[in-house]
Amino acid sequence: MVIIIPFKERYAGEFKRLNTEWLRQYFVIEAYDEYQLSHPNEEILDKGGYIFLAMDNELVIGTVALMKETDRSFELTKMSVTKDSQGKGVSKLLMDACIKLAKEKKWDRLFLYSNTILVPAIQLYRRYGFLEILLETQSHYSRTNIKMELKLI
After folding, report:
1. Residue 128: pLDDT band by 50, 70, 90 thresholds?
2. In sequence order, what are the residues at sequence separation of 6 or more whose Cβ sits closer than 8 angstroms to the Cβ of residue 50?
3. Maximum Cα interatomic distance, the chain, rounded to a whole number of Å
4. Which tens digits make up the pLDDT trace of 98-113?
5. First-to-last C-alpha distance (Å) of the chain
6. What is the 3-state secondary structure (H, E, C) of the chain?
7. pLDDT by residue (tens digit) across 26-80?
8. How far is the C-alpha of 56 from the C-alpha of 79, rounded, in Å?
9. Are 147 and 136 in contact (CB under 8 A)?
10. Considering just the CA atoms, what is the radius of gyration of the chain in Å?
C-alpha cells in the first residue's frame, strides 16, 4: 500500500535520485535542478516549502515539492515517480496531498512549470483544474514551455 509522508532527512538521497532519473529520461539536469536536489532543506524546506514522499513499504517511489513564492502562492515542483510505479495512481496521491495542504493553509494558488511533451503530466494537471497561464520569458528552467495555475480561492 502506498502512503504519502512528509520529507525525512534520511530520504534526501532518494529525493535527488528519483528526480535526477526523471530529468535524465526527458531533459537534462540544469544547474538550478542540481542545486535544489542537493540542498532540499536550504532550497525548499527552510524557505517555507514542503516535500512529500510516496512510500511503498520502506521504498521511496515518488516525490513532489511545494516551493514558497509568497505566503499564499506555492510552486508545485520536483514531482517524480519511479518507472515501475508509473500509471498506478502515485502521482494522483502526491497531487491530493499537495492540494489538501494548500486548502488547509488557505493558500490562494498553486502553479507549476512544465513541458507539453509530458502529455500524461499535463493531463493530470488539467484533471485537477490547473489552467495554462502566461509563461514569463525567463523561467527557472530552459525546458519549460508551459506554466499552469490552480486557483484555490
Report:
1. very high
2. 6, 7, 44, 65, 66, 74, 98, 101
3. 42
4. 999 999 999 999 999 9
5. 33
6. CEEEEECCHHHHHHHHHHHHHHHHHHCCCCHHHHHHHHCHHHHHHCCCCEEEEEEECCEEEEEEEEEEEECCEEEEEEEEECHHHCCCCHHHHHHHHHHHHHHHCCCCEEEEEECCCCHHHHHHHHHCCCEEECCCCCCCCCCCCEEEEEECC
7. 999 999 999 999 999 999 999 999 999 999 999 999 999 999 999 999 999 999 9
8. 16
9. yes
10. 14
- Are 67 and 74 within 8 A, CB to CB? yes
Distances in whole angstroms, Cα of residue 76 to Cα of each of 30, 39, 138:
18, 17, 18
Strands 59-70 and 50-56: antiparallel
Q: At what angle do helices 90-104 and 119-127 cross, to 10 degrees?
A: 40
83-95: pLDDT as tens digits: 999 989 999 999 9
- Amino acid identity, position 134: L
Q: How far apart are CA 16 and CA 126, in angstroms?
A: 26
